[in-house]
Amino acid sequence: QVDSVASDVSGPSQEQDASENNQCSLHPYTVSFRQLGWDHWIIAPHHYTPNYCKGTCPRVLHYGLNSPNHAIIQNLINELVNQSIPQPSCVPYKYDAMSVLLIEANGSILYKEHEGMVAQSCTCR
Amino acid sequence: EVGQPSTTFLPESPTLPPAETSTMRLVEKLLEEAPGKEQRKPHLEGPPLQYMLELYQRSADSDGHPRENRTIGARMVRLLMPSANIARPLRGSWYTRILNFLLGRNRVAYQLVKATVVYRHQLHLAHFNLSCYVELWVPKSPNNPSSVRGSSKLSLMSQTWTEMDLTQHIQQKLWNRKGRRMLRLRFMCQPQNDSEVAEFHGHDPSSVHIAFLLLHLNDTHKNAQKAELLPSVLEEFMEGESSLLSRKTR
Lengths: 125, 250
Prior knowledge:
The structure holds two protein chains of two kinds. Chain A is of the alpha+beta class. Chain A is built from four helices and seven strands. In chain A, the strands form three sheets. Chain A has a three-stranded antiparallel beta sheet with strand order 3-6-7, with no helix packed on it. Chain A has a two-stranded antiparallel ribbon with strand order 1-5. The N terminus of chain A is likely disordered. Chain B starts with 8 loop residues before the first helix and ends with a helix. Chain B has six helices and eleven strands. Chains A and B meet through helix 1, strand 4, strand 6 and strand 7 of A and helix 3, strand 1 and helix 6 of B. Strand 7 of chain A pairs antiparallel with strand 1 of chain B, so a sheet runs across the interface.
């Protein structure tokens, strides 16, 4: 079975060609706190750029995708053993922090750095 | 909930299915101290907000990315206004107010990095120039002096504001106390010109911002980031798998 997979993955398939343009990657996205309905208590910044990850995960997870061993195994399981086990998903890999300035319910003003607010890169896992 | 401005849906939510719980926990954390829409406006003006906006601009760029060279020394800075501002009887030429700052409960184990009170050391009120200072207010007892002064330095904010370090006092006396935690300060002013003392009586500077408290905090609740260690069993498996794959590919 591994032999057949190995021969399958040795050259790009038509399916891979088609999905190459739609491969898992980071997409920029900005939303205003007004759109989120939070502008009455978040003073700064006015905009939030969380970004997002979108695209298909290739059958062979190359190093650039930073996929963990588990994702590689799960891909193999999907391919070889049980197709009801899903292929890995395209999700954020690294995140940036974001600082906000907000008014609290008791009237105090808070500067706070929140971790994990901005997607910086993507992975398949 | 996008497009549905509401900060009250969380407490009203029924029991959430597990998949939604973690998402809601984050949003809940973000919103836990959010005020109602009508509460913001009264606090949006004046030196306290100006101070925090300047602090923000020094610490983060316009997109909110924390600056690498930021110097605040903590991940959180909370500005507290006095919850009570009580006038005391005049003593000679001294005008005195007691300022109460409610520190609230230490709900998520915040570590206090630094605490300072920022106050006006010069007040211009109804044509009078006042010199002011702040000291800790401690109830009189045989073992306690009536007040303790901290070390003061001029604030970066303006020439009329001074910053006094209270970290040690709050850390030792208040921070780990259970229940109600309140810092009491005595704000004292005196006309700069002795001849103005009699005329000054009757004027009240309570309507202007005279002091606020700054707490620099770190959240110790956050899990330390774990190194991604490959379990040895899986490592062995992967080594075998990769050599098998490379042989077959060859």
